[in-house]
Amino acid sequence: MKSVQNALNRRKKGEKGFTLVELLVVVIIIGILAAVAVPIYLNQRKSAWRSSVQSDVKNASLAIETASTNANGQIKNFADITDATTKTQIMNGTTATGEEFTVSKDNHISVDFKSDNTYEIKGWNTNLGGTASKPDVTYNSATGSLS
């Protein structure tokens, strides 16, 4: 109790500065705010990566649909938009009729052209842990759905 009275007396005499307790309280509050903010920031990054993949899949779909319209509604296996090695994975593509789309950094897209004039686009981001067999986003032209 005497130390509290001494601190108050020093304040009355005009001494300036913060006490150790005041500084500790500020440091604890900053620590709590940081502990809350960091997980929120990390979740926002994941959401941004997922949105990026969705956007790339939609752009690839639009390019293929435009090329299909120019080919009288026929979906063809556009070899010039597929990777020469795997025949499925697209990094950056141009369709047979010149429609272009760009795949964002760390995103990957594969297109599976089916015999019934439909196709399926799979997209994944390496930061999200997606792979060709476990894509983050899938678009099916038969249903027009993005999942």
UniProtKB/TrEMBL annotation:
Keywords: Membrane, Transmembrane, Transmembrane helix. The keyword Cell inner membrane does not apply. The keyword Membrane applies. InterPro entries: N_methyl_site, Pilin-like. The chain crosses the membrane at residues 20-42. It comes from the Bacteria. Pfam families: N_methyl. NCBIfam families: IV_pilin_GFxxxE. This is Prepilin-type cleavage/methylation protein.
